[in-house]
């Protein structure tokens, strides 16, 4: 095509980026790669080819890691960790900063190599992936610098195993490695089998930056290598990928004491109201679903359009789709590149071919010959339960239905097991900011989409996983409180056959939905004092009682919408009422435990209530200064329904320490009282009854922790399970939690010093950060 012809037709001319430098770099490495362990590339071994999905050409051959390779990488990381952490924040910051500078210096090489390996348009790798990866290292260089002053009670976890997917190879690497090494951890990272090349180039950058040996180790291979890392002697697993593999990793790490963060799939809603700027919303949609060929965990893949504008919107959308340019990813004018691999192409084609619902429009565009290309596709008129409205397609396929009212939009948007991101388009800021808190998602974008920055945490709720990457909140995933762990011995109840201490029979019931309820099974347990005297009976709750309690808690969701001020008032009121009966509670605790610490325990419990009340209206979010004309509002939201197995050794204080911060933040709780000493909890019902606590906000069960833990951790309406039980339940809870990927916080057999106020830690566990991006300006 000549320039004159281009001017005549106004067609886009070709604008190819040269691949010469990147191909030369591969040739320089012998086109064969080993791993990067202890600061050295190992010799290449048996493995697999890495191909360019746009052409099918082999780029390099990679090595499949063996168990010995993984062991060597973990050993190198372990050896390096102490010294790396001891270097201190400012010392580490220098290296992160150097890596960021080097990434910037070699940015075009990284961008081209990423595009060759993954198939994403060069425009995206050049302008989004690589700059964001640099930004993560700069940002976290700052975090390392500030760690000692801003996180004085935190220390590194140790060695982190990190497993990443193929959709944003270098960016996901940066999201994982930057915060980990900033906080003093060392890492063993496995890139995805399809896209390992930029990770191997990054290894070279680590060498150039003089990063101490063993701080970053990279092993290549398939899912089996991921399994080896998961099973290895590491302190944490950070995973991004599919929900099914995330679930397996949750099960595999259950009870190991390894910290876990999972960033999983999504089916994110893209909601367009009738007052939206439609042309902008269409451009946003191009970014939402055709960016990276729709292979984006937070892709706006589920379009919800308000009925009145649907026809006009679809026709504009189809016109825009027909203008998209699909072609060589190295062409700077191309909008849609190649899907990562023939396997993924087959998955996408298979899912679309199996669908018989709705009406399909595929972009009327010239498709490249050969290579892994799939046309931009829209399927409209689906119903919410259609498989394509529920399943992650992970390709350039948009599915859609309409809605009438904002309330219906919320219902449809939340009708998914995922909860990663959501987009809202409307010119009405009141409507947008009213919608944002109602959407079950870790990130909400208003009048924009796919906005990311290192300063704003990214991550999901529900089956989209847990943990955040980026921002202050992301650091929690790579640090732990400095504390020496002491083992927790099982607290056994006293035995006895003595006469009742008080002839008047008082059999405590359960506390469900604000009422005292008889245990469903009709069984009770006797509670004896140290001398063997019968102190009373407590109900033995079963699975059905757990179901009733969870139902009551789920039904009390209006609690989450109350103000912090109101929740504080109620917590103060509980504190006052407990204080009025302090002596009675202290005597009860002493009688059950056979110790004399009751008075001290009750006083600490009252203080815990007052502290949680104090925080209720002060544990605020943040406004992140993200690089857009606008803000990202990091809002702290309640986790939802929390099940907690309360401490056996501190029957009142343990229960109050878990309950108070949880309800202060708007959660509803189902508490399993101390198994050995349940009667302080059952006396507490009356305190709750007289303190204006709405029905269902606090539910208390008594009975076997093992049985209650099983029922709570496998219940799909429970969002988090905490365990401070002296029974050995951590592994069982974590394994059962994989069902709906609920958050867990378990003691792994270590003791908690209940006299120490750890309310801040509880507040952190009781909340999730939702980042709401609000661009502004005319
Ligand atoms: P996976 O979840 O299988 O892969 C993610 C990473 O985990 C890869 O490095 C993979 O290795 C590794 N892995 C695979 N199995 C295990 C295991 N048992 N234990 C530990 N690590 C493991 O995603 P896929 O690449 O197979 O893609 C499948 C689907 O997942 C996609 O179609 C898409 O729907 C979804 N997906 C979602 C992503 C997200 O960000 N939400 C990202 C990628 C995929 P290897 O690549 O070598 O198999």
UniProtKB/TrEMBL annotation:
The active-site annotation reads: 263
What protein family is recorded?
Belongs to the aldehyde dehydrogenase family.
Keywords, A to Z, come to: Oxidoreductase
| PANTHER family associated with the record | ALDEHYDE DEHYDROGENASE-RELATED (PTHR11699)
Protein name stated in the entry:
Aldehyde dehydrogenase family protein
What Pfam families does this protein map onto? Aldedh
Q: Which organism is it from?
A: Leisingera aquaemixtae
**Gene3D superfamilies in the record, alphabetically?**
Aldehyde Dehydrogenase, Chain A, domain 1 (3.40.605.10), Aldehyde Dehydrogenase, Chain A, domain 2 (3.40.309.10)
Q: Name residues in a coiled coil.
A: none
What domain of life does the UniProt record list for this protein's source?
Bacteria
InterPro entries, A to Z: Ald_DH/histidinol_DH, Ald_DH_C, Ald_DH_CS_GLU, Ald_DH_N, Aldehyde_DH, Aldehyde_DH_dom
């Amino acid at each position: 095509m000549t320039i004159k012809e281009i001017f005549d037709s106004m067609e886009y001319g070709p604008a190819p980026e040269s691949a010469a430098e990147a191909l030369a770099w591969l040739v320089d490495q012998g086109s064969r790669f080993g791993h990067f362990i202890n600061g050295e590339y190992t010799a290449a071994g048996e493995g697999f080819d890495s191909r360019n999905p746009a052409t099918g050409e082999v780029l390099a051959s990679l090595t499949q890691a063996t168990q010995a390779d993984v062991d060597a990488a973990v050993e190198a990381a372990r050896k390096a960790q102490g010294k790396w952490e001891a270097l201190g924040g400012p010392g580490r910051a220098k290296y992160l900063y150097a890596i960021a500078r080097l990434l910037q210096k070699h940015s075009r090489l990284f961008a081209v190599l990423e595009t060759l390996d993954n198939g994403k348009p060069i425009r995206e790798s050049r302008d989004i992936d690589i700059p964001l990866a640099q930004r993560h290292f700069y940002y976290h260089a700052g975090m390392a610098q500030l760690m000692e002053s801003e996180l004085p009670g935190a220390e590194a976890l140790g060695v982190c195993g990190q497993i990443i997917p193929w959709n944003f190879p270098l960016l996901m690497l940066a999201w994982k490695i930057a915060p980990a090494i900033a906080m003093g951890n060392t890492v063993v990272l496995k890139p995805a089998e399809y896209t390992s090349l930029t990770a191997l180039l990054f290894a070279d950058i680590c060498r150039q930056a003089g990063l101490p040996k063993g701080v970053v180790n990279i092993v290549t291979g398939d899912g089996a290598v991921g399994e080896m890392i998961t099973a290895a002697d590491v302190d944490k697993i950070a995973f991004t990928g599919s929900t099914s593999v995330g679930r397996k990793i949750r099960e595999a790490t259950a009870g190991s004491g390894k910290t876990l963060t999972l960033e999983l799939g999504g089916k994110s809603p893209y909601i367009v109201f009738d007052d939206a700027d439609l042309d902008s919303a269409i451009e946003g949609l191009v970014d939402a679903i055709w960016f990276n060929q729709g292979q984006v965990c937070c892709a706006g893949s589920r379009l919800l359009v308000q009925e009145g504008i649907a026809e006009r919107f679809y026709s504009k959308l189809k016109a825009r789709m027909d203008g998209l340019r699909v072609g060589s990813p190295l062409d700077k004018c191309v909008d849609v590149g190649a899907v990562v691999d023939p396997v993924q192409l087959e998955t996408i084609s298979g899912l679309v071919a199996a669908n018989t619902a709705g009406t399909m429009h595929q972009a009327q565009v010239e498709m490249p010959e050969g290579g892994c290309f799939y046309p931009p596709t829209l399927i409209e008129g689906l119903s919410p339960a259609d498989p394509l409205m529920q399943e992650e397609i992970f390709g350039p396929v948009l599915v859609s239905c309409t809605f009438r009212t904002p309330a219906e939009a919320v219902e449809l948007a939340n009708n998914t097991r995922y909860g990663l991101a959501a987009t809202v388009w409307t010119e009405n800021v009141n409507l947008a900011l009213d919608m944002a808190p109602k959407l079950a998602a870790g990130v909400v974008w208003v009048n924009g989409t796919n906005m990311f920055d290192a300063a704003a945490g990214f991550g999901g709720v529900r089956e989209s996983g847990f943990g955040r990457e980026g921002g202050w909140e992301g650091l929690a995933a790579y640090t732990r409180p400095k504390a020496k762990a002491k083992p927790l011995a099982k607290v056994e109840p006293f035995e006895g056959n003595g006469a009742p201490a008080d002839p008047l029979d008082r059999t405590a019931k359960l506390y469900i939905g604000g009422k005292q309820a008889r245990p469903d099974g009709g069984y009770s347990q006797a509670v004896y004092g140290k001398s063997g005297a019968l102190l009373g009976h407590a109900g033995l709750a079963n699975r059905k009682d757990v179901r009733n309690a969870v139902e009551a808690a789920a039904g009390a969701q209006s609690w989450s919408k109350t103000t912090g001020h109101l929740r504080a008032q109620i917590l103060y009121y509980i504190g006052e009422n407990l204080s009025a009966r302090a002596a009675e509670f202290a005597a009860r605790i002493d009688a059950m435990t056979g110790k004399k610490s009751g008075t001290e325990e009750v006083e600490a419990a009252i203080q815990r209530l007052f502290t949680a009340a104090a925080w209720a209206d002060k544990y605020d979010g943040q406004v992140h200064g993200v690089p857009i004309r606008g803000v990202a509002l990091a809002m702290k939201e309640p986790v939802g329904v929390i099940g907690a197995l309360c401490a056996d050794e501190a029957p009142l204080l343990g229960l109050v320490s878990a309950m108070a911060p949880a309800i202060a933040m708007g959660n509803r709780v189902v508490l399993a009282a101390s198994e050995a000493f349940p009667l302080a909890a059952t006396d507490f019902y009356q305190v709750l009854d007289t303190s204006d606590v709405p029905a269902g906000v606090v539910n208390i069960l008594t009975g076997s922790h093992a049985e209650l833990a099983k029922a709570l951790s496998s219940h799909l309406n429970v969002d988090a399970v905490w365990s401070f039980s002296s029974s050995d339940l951590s592994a069982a809870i974590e394994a059962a939690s994989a069902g709906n990927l609920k958050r867990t916080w378990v003691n792994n057999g270590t003791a908690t010093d209940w006299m120490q106020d750890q309310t801040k830690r509880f507040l952190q566990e009781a909340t999730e950060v939702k980042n709401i991006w609000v661009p502004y300006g005319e």
